[in-house]
Amino acid sequence: MNAPLTPALLTTCVFGAALLLNVAVKLWLASRQIRAVARHRGAVPAEFARAIPLETHQRAADYTVARLRFGLLELALGAAVLLGWTLLGGLDALNGALLDALGPRPLLQPLALLVAFALINGLIDLPVSAWQTFVIEQRFGFNRMSARLWWADLLKSVALGVLIGVPLAAGALWLMQATGRAWWLWTWGAWMAFSLLMLVLYPTLIAPLFNKFEPLDDAVLRERVAALMARCGFTAKGLFVMDGSRRSAHANAYFTGFGAAKRVVFFDTLLAQLTPPEVEAVLAHELGHFRHRHIVQRIVLLFALSFAGLALLGWLAGQGWFYAGLGVTPNLPASMGGAVPNHALALLLFTGVVPVFMFFVSPLAATLSRRHEFQADAYAARQASAQELSNALVKLYKDNASTLTPDPLYVRFYYSHPPASERMAQLGARVSPA
Ligand SMILES: [Zn+2]
């Protein structure tokens, strides 16, 4: 039998091949990384030998390998779920069941489809996330979460999803149906407006639902930080300490908000590990991201990419082969000429399938991000101290059990930050004993 190559069949083939290649490349990269880490497990790299004990180095290697192995399971599960939704007919069945139950109601049925899809995916992810926290992070001593806190977080996230996500999805579906052919442009505008709003609201309204933020009360550190910010020409609304230790021993610091609403947030775990001059150097690095306009660049890039993405979706949603090729019968009622886009279906297919292709350009994004990190490091070296930043980085690598010996190709694909040895080399700092 010789099936003619219809656009739908071609879509199936291209998607299938891309998914296969995607999984194969990820598998290959992960196994390279596992081998690179295992190969160097026996000895601390020479330049770090004075700062990092062998035992710490080996723990980092074991942690890295454990996470990579688990990542392989997640990769297989993710690919199976995506295949299940698309070519194996899961989305089609769900859509059909909701059509039977609710009828072809223009807003309610697609909204129910989005919600049901999110719920099912959320249920599939639950055991994965629990295993990550209570088995892997736990085994290496990073987890600080009780089961109670984990469930509380989950309930809060679901509540936020219902309060914010459902009205947002309903609004988007309404826009898609009400604004005619240019719906994708309207949807893009609304989505971007929402993203900007969240940038302002997240730090002040949503983050406090999950963590406590208290003003930094360490006078010595506050003075240092204030002097640094004045030197760099920044004003922030406040310096806050976040109780990151409630959930994890991993440490971090970040700078959020816009204009006068800017705030600096230190994890309490970071303050516990670093000396004030080291904290100052880490903050100078964060300020470097602002000074070089990395945040704005990232937002502009996101705007441009989502514009292109929605334009593409706007076109695909009207093509029958797009649905059929991905295992879905679009509900195109004959009374509507059979050419009405199925927005919810199109949206779900699109958000499932696009990342499979986008993975192949991830080295570009990672390269850009690593370049930004180098620029921020250089800024920190000028405004604070290269030596203090280097000391802080070594401590963070050590405490977060990050590997010092990654595979170079793995780095190209995945690393948003340059590996430790490259950052140290660029800072030109000595690695001093801890
Ligand atoms: Zn950075």
Give the key terms.
globular; binds zinc ion; transmembrane helix; CAXX_Prtase_1; 434 residues; 70% helix; 4-stranded mixed sheet; transmembrane; mainly alpha
Question: In words, what does this structure look like?
Answer:
This protein has 434 residues and is mainly alpha-helical. It contains 16 helices and four strands. It has helices at residues 7-39, 54-85, 90-102, 108-139, 147-178, 183-210, 219-232, 268-273, 276-291, 294-316, 320-325, 343-358, 362-383, 386-399, 408-414, 420-427, and strands spanning 213-215, 238-242, 253-256, 263-267. The chain has a four-stranded mixed sheet with strand order 1-2-4-3, sandwiched between helices. A hairpin with a 6-residue loop joins strand 3 (253-256) and strand 4. The longest helix is centred in the first third of the chain and has 33 residues, at 7-39. The N and C termini lie far apart (71 Å). The model is unreliable at 334-339 (pLDDT under 50). The structure holds zinc ion (ZN). Residues 285, 289, 373, 376 line the site of zinc ion. Zinc ion (ZN) is lined by residues 285, 289, 373, 376.
Write a compact overview of the structure shown:
Its cofactor is Zn(2+). With 434 residues, this protein is mainly alpha-helical. It has helices at residues 7-39, 54-85, 90-102, 108-139, 147-178, 183-210, 219-232, 268-273, 276-291, 294-316, 320-325, 343-358, 362-383, 386-399, 408-414, 420-427, and strands at residues 213-215, 238-242, 253-256, 263-267.
List the helices and strands and how they pair.
Blueprint: H1 7-39, H2 54-85, H3 90-102, H4 108-139, H5 147-178, H6 183-210, E1 213-215, H7 219-232, E2 238-242, E3 253-256, E4 263-267, H8 268-273, H9 276-291, H10 294-316, H11 320-325, H12 343-358, H13 362-383, H14 386-399, H15 408-414, H16 420-427
Helix pairs in contact: 1-2, 1-15, 2-4, 3-4, 4-5, 4-12, 5-6, 6-10, 7-9, 9-13, 9-14, 13-15, 14-16
Bound molecules: zinc ion.
Zinc ion (ZN) binds next to helix 9 and helix 13.
InterPro entries: CAXX_Prtase_1 (IPR027057), Peptidase_M48 (IPR001915), Peptidase_M48_N (IPR032456)
Cofactor: Zn(2+)
Domain CAAX prenyl protease 1 N-terminal: 33-212
